[in-house]
Design a protein that fits this description.
- It is built from six helices and 36 strands.
- It is mostly beta strands and 704 residues long.
- The protein has a single domain, classed as TonB-dependent receptor, beta-barrel domain (Maltoporin, Chain A), CATH 2.40.170.
- The protein has a 22-stranded antiparallel barrel.
- The protein starts with a helix and ends in a 12-residue tail after the last strand.
Length: 704
C-alpha cells in the first residue's frame, strides 16, 4: 500500500513501464494457461453438476437481497480495486426521491444546484469539477462533446433502480477515463414487479410513474413511464444584488421557475441459454422549464426545452467457462435544446435558438474465460461520432456549419490474483484518438473554425489485499485527460459565453484506503476509509463574465487532497449509516492572482448521517446533511457559512400498498450553492405506491 500511496511521486515513464509490464505479464500468463500441456480443467461431468444446482440455490433467496448482491458483484467486477458505492433507489422511505438526493448520501459526492428540484444541477466527486465526472445510463454515455457537464435534473429519476458511483477510478470499458470518476445509472431489471406510484407536495410539486415487467421462457420485457414537475414558487431572501449589505434584503417569491418533465423506457431481452443474452432498449426524456435567472434580477419570461431519444443494443456471449466471453454494444441518441428570451431579460440580446446534437457509437470487448482464476484480462475497442448543429449566439445571425468529433478508442486491462484471490493486482490502459472539426459563430457574428487531433492516454494501476477478519486494503493510481466540450467552447442557453481558445486539461490522481465488514449474531457493520490526492493542469472551470453570464476558462494548475469515510451499523431492523468527506481544493498557479485560494463550490467538509427503523409495515427514517464553509467566487470574497439540512419520513405498508409522508429541509435553511441562485426552504411531500403481481406482496428484508 505504501508503494501506491507514494505513486504520485513516481516518474511518469516509470509508472507507464510498470503498467505495461503488468499487462504483458498477465497476457503471457493467460496464453500459458491456454497452451497445450497446461493443467486440464475438471471433467465435464464433474463441472456440470454444481453449475446446474447453483441457479436453484440463488432463486431461494429473497428477491431484494438477490438484486443487491448481484449489483455489488457487477460493480466490483468492473473495478475490483476502486472505491465503489452502490446506491439503491426506493429503499429510503422518501416520498419524493431525486437523483441528487441519492448521490449526496455517498462519500465525496457534492451536488451543486442552481435552484432546487428541476433546476440545473451538477455533480462533483472528490473535489473534481463536474466536467471531470462521466455519467452513464445503463452503460451508455450521457457525457458527450455536446454536454461535458451532465445536468442531473435531465436524468430519468423515476426510472432509476440503482446508481453505481466510482470515485476517482472508473472502468475503462465504459468510455474515456474522467479524472473525477464516473456514475452509472441502472434502470429497473427485466421482469421487475409491476408498480404504480404517485406523489405530491410543496410548491406545486407532483410525480407519477408506473413500471411493468414480464418474463416468458427466454424472453423478458420491461416498460416504464413517468412524469414529474413543480411550480418552484418558493420564498427566498433577496439580497438585491448587494451580498455585503444586509440592510436592503427582503423576502420574495421565485418567478418563472416551473418545470414539467416526462420519460419513458422500454427494454426487451432474449436469453436462450446460460451465457447468452441479447437486449435492446429505448429511452425518451423531455423537459420544459422556465429560466428565472438570478434571484436579485428575476426573468419572468425566458423558456428552455430539452428532449433526448436514446436507443441501445447489447449482446453478450460466454458459452462455456473455458471459452473467452465477448460483449458487443451499440448506441444512438439525439438531443434537442430550444431556448427563448425574446425580451432580452437575461442580458445577451434577443434569444430564440434551436440546437441539435447526435451521438452514435459501438464497441466490442473480449474477456478471458471465467475458469481462469489466477489471471483475468479484457481488451476492446470502440468507435464514436458526435455531431452538433449549434444555434447562433444572437438572434438573426447565420447558423454555423455542423460541428463533429470522431473518436477511436482501444483499451486493455489485466488482473493477477494471488493466494486464492487474497491479493489482486490490476493494470489497464485506454487510448482515445479524437478528431475535432469545430465550426461556430461566436458573439459578434464572427465565424470560427478549428480542426485538431489529439490522443488521450489513460493508464491505471490498482492493488487490493484481503486480510483476515474481513479487512481489505486498496490503492489506485491513474492519469487522465479531457478535451473541452462544445458548450465550453461556443456557449449556449443565454448565460454561457464562448471561449474557443480553451486548452485540454490533464491530471494525475491516487488514493489509498481500507474497508471492513463484519457480523455477529443480529449485529452487522461495514466501514470504509480512503485518502485521495490529485493534481490537474489547465483545469477548465467556470468564472463570472458579467453579472448574468459565465465563461469557461483554464486554470494553469489545481491541487486537491482529502479524506473520505463511510460506515453502517445494523441491529435487527434498525440501521445507522454515515458518510464523511474532508476536502482541500486550491488553485496552484503561482503566477495567478488566485494562487492558494480555495476552489469555489467545494466545502471543506461534508457530513451525512441517516437512521432507519422498521417494525411490521412501518418504516421511519431521518437524515441530516452538514455542508461546511464554502465560497462562491475564485477570489474567496463571497463566503457561504456552514449549513445543516434535516429531513425525516414515515411510511406504512398494507400488503402491496404503501403510504409515505416526508419533510425536507425541516430547519428551513436558506442558502445558495451558486451565487445569486436561491435554494428552496422547508417543504413537505406525500406519496402512494402500489406493487402488484407475483412480487407485490414480498416484504423487504431489513438486512438488505
Amino acid at each position: 500500500m505504501r508503494l501506491l500511496a507514494e505513486a504520485g511521486r513516481f516518474d511518469s515513464s516509470a509508472k507507464d513501464a510498470v503498467i505495461d509490464l503488468l499487462i504483458s505479464t498477465c497476457l503471457s500468463a493467460a496464453l500459458a494457461v491456454s497452451a497445450p500441456g497446461a493443467a486440464s480443467p475438471p471433467p465435464a461431468d464433474s463441472a456440470s453438476a454444481p453449475t446446474s444446482q447453483a441457479p436453484r440455490t440463488v432463486r431461494t433467496l429473497p428477491p431484494v437481497e438477490v438484486r443487491r448482491d448481484r449489483a455489488l458483484l457487477d460493480a466490483r467486477r468492473r473495478a475490483p480495486t476502486a472505491s465503489v458505492t452502490d446506491l439503491r433507489a426506493g429503499e429510503s422511505a422518501r416520498a419524493l426521491e431525486s437523483v441528487s438526493e441519492l448521490l449526496q448520501s455517498s462519500a465525496s459526492a457534492r451536488v451543486v444546484s442552481y435552484g432546487g428540484l428541476g433546476a440545473f444541477s451538477t455533480l462533483s466527486l472528490r473535489g473534481a469539477p463536474p466536467g471531470q465526472v462521466s455519467v452513464y445510463l445503463d452503460g451508455v454515455p450521457l457525457t458527450s462533446a455536446a454536454h461535458g457537464v451532465v445536468n442531473l435534473s435531465d436524468l430519468p429519476a423515476s426510472a432509476i433502480d440503482r446508481i453505481e458511483v466510482y470515485r476517482g477510478f472508473a472502468p475503462l470499458g465504459f468510455g474515456a477515463a474522467a479524472p473525477g470518476g464516473a456514475v452509472n445509472l441502472v434502470t429497473a431489471e427485466d421482469g421487475a414487479p409491476r408498480t404504480v406510484r404517485v406523489a405530491a407536495g410543496s410548491f406545486g410539486t407532483y410525480e407519477a410513474r408506473g413500471t411493468a415487467g414480464a418474463k416468458r421462457g427466454a424472453w423478458s420485457a420491461l416498460a416504464h413511464a413517468g412524469a414529474q414537475g413543480s411550480e418552484g414558487d418558493f420564498d427566498f431572501v433577496d439580497d438585491n444584488g448587494t451580498p455585503f449589505n444586509a440592510g436592503d434584503d427582503e423576502v420574495t417569491r421565485r418567478l418563472n421557475n416551473r418545470f414539467d418533465a416526462a420519460n419513458a423506457l422500454a427494454r426487451v431481452a432474449w436469453a436462450p441459454r446460460e451465457g447468452v443474452r441479447v437486449s435492446a432498449r429505448g429511452e425518451g426524456f423531455r423537459k420544459a422549464q422556465g429560466v428565472p435567472g438570478l434571484g436579485a434580477i428575476q426573468a419572468p419570461h425566458p423558456r428552455l426545452a430539452f428532449s433526448r431519444a436514446l436507443g441501445a443494443f447489447d449482446a453478450a456471449v460466454a458459452l462455456d467457462d473455458r471459452l473467452p466471453g465477448a460483449t458487443l454494444r451499440a448506441h444512438a441518441q439525439r438531443e434537442r435544446t430550444r431556448f427563448t428570451d425574446t425580451a432580452s431579460e437575461l442580458g445577451l440580446g434577443r434569444q430564440e435558438t434551436d440546437a441539435r446534437f447526435a451521438d452514435r457509437g459501438a464497441g466490442l470487448d473480449v474477456a478471458t474465460p471465467a475458469a481462469w482464476r489466477r489471471v483475468t484480462a479484457v481488451a476492446g475497442f470502440a468507435l464514436r461520432r458526435e455531431t452538433a448543429e449549434p444555434a447562433a449566439p444572437t438572434y438573426g445571425q447565420a447558423l454555423p456549419p455542423q460541428t463533429r468529433r470522431e473518436t477511436r478508442a482501444a483499451h486493455v486491462g489485466a488482473q493477477l490474483h494471488f493466494a486464492d484471490d487474497a491479493v489482486t493486482l490490476h493494470a489497464a490502459r485506454r487510448w482515445d484518438r479524437q478528431a475535432d472539426h469545430l465550426r461556430a459563430t461566436i458573439v459578434g457574428g464572427l465565424p470560427y473554425a478549428l480542426d485538431a487531433t489529439r490522443v488521450l492516454n489513460a493508464p491505471q494501476l490498482g492493488l487490493r489485499v484481503r486480510l483476515p477478519r474481513q479487512l481489505e486494503l486498496r490503492g489506485n493510481w491513474t492519469r487522465t485527460g479531457r478535451a473541452p466540450e462544445f458548450l465550453e467552447l461556443f456557449g449556449d442557453q443565454a448565460v454561457v459565453q464562448a471561449n474557443p481558445k480553451l486548452l485540454p486539461e490533464s491530471g494525475e490522481s491516487w488514493d489509498a484506503g481500507a474497508a471492513w465488514r463484519g457480523r455477529r449474531g443480529v449485529w452487522s457493520a461495514t466501514a470504509e476509509y480512503a485518502h485521495f490526492e490529485s493534481r490537474t493542469r489547465d483545469l477548465i472551470t467556470w468564472v463570472s463574465a458579467s453579472q448574468r453570464t459565465v465563461r469557461a476558462t483554464n486554470i494553469a494548475r489545481a491541487r486537491t487532497s482529502g479524506d473520505e469515510a463511510s460506515a453502517r451499523l445494523a441491529w435487527r431492523a434498525v440501521s445507522v449509516s454515515a458518510a464523511f468527506t474532508w476536502l482541500d481544493a486550491r488553485q496552484d498557479d503561482r503566477a495567478s492572482l488566485y494562487y492558494g485560494r480555495r476552489l469555489p463550490q467545494r466545502p471543506e467538509y461534508q457530513r451525512y448521517a441517516r437512521l432507519d427503523a422498521r417494525r411490521g409495515g412501518w418504516h421511519a427514517a431521518a437524515d441530516v446533511l452538514v455542508l461546511g464553509e464554502d465560497y462562491l467566487d475564485p477570489i474567496n470574497f463571497r463566503r457561504v457559512p456552514e449549513r445543516t439540512l434535516v429531513g425525516a419520513s414515515l411510511s406504512r405498508a398494507w400488503g402491496p400498498l404503501r403510504l409515505t409522508l416526508e419533510g425536507k429541509n425541516l430547519s428551513d435553511s436558506r442558502a445558495q450553492d451558486v451565487g445569486g441562485y436561491p435554494l428552496p426552504g422547508r417543504s413537505a411531500f406525500a406519496s402512494c405506491e402500489w406493487r402488484f403481481g407475483r412480487s407485490g406482496t414480498t416484504s423487504r428484508n431489513p438486512r438488505s
